[in-house]
Structures are given as structure tokens and as C-alpha cells.
């Protein structure tokens, strides 16, 4: 029963973190398109900052329950190493999004909105690979 509860909590917090991973770059697109509307830009930056903090909390909890699954329940295999590598890629993407947000809040420029829109689509592919590894455990 403890295993199922731990696994369920891990999944829930991963879903919450992934929501932030998908939505933060979308906020960046909106900031880039806000142009000369300082009130809109300020509101979006506030939303982004709050979302980024929430994402850190959700990642921390997902990491904690994943660590318990690995160390206490002895989840292992080559697929797990590949999954962890892809999660690190996703974490790097999340941190980079946060840095773009911080740059915008400091008055710096963002990449063009078209570039940010393409950037916004990348985590879907990484998530697809992660889910495949977890479900199929190919190695």
C-alpha cells in the first residue's frame, strides 16, 4: 500500500510540475507580445514569477517521492537512467524559462514571440519519451 501511495504522489506532483513547464513559456510568449503595455507586462511577469515558484515546489515534491521509489522501493533498470537524464533535460528547460522571465523582469529583452512559440513545443517531445520509458521499460 505504501508503494502505491508513494507512486501516486510522485505522479500527481510530476503532473503539477509539468503544468508549470508547459505554461511558463506560454506566459513568456504573452510578455513578448505585450509590447508597449506596461500594465499587461507587469501582470504577466507577476503571474510568471508565482508560477515559477510553484513549479519549484512541485518539482521538489516529485523529486522527493521519486527518490523514495528509487531508494526505498528499489525501482531500477536502464530505462530509469534514461528517464532521469530526460528529466534533467526538462529541468534545464524549466530553469532556462525562469531565467528568461527574470531577464524580462529586469528590463531585458526576450527572444521574438515566434521563437518562444517554437520553444514552447519542445517539452512535449521530451515528455513523450519519458512516458514511453516509464510505461514500456524497454531496457
Your description of this structure?
By secondary structure, the protein is mainly alpha-helical. It has helices spanning about 1-35, 40-70, 80-105, 115-135.
How helical, in percent, are the residues? over 70%
Major beta-sheet overview: none
Low-confidence stretches: none
* Coarse morphology: elongated
State the helix count.
4
Strand segment tally: 0
**Which structural class should the secondary elements be placed in?**
mainly alpha
Q: Which characteristics define this entry?
A:
139 residues; mainly alpha; 86% helix
What does this entry show, briefly?
The protein is an all-alpha fold and 139 residues long. The protein has helices at 2-34, 38-71, 78-105, 113-136.
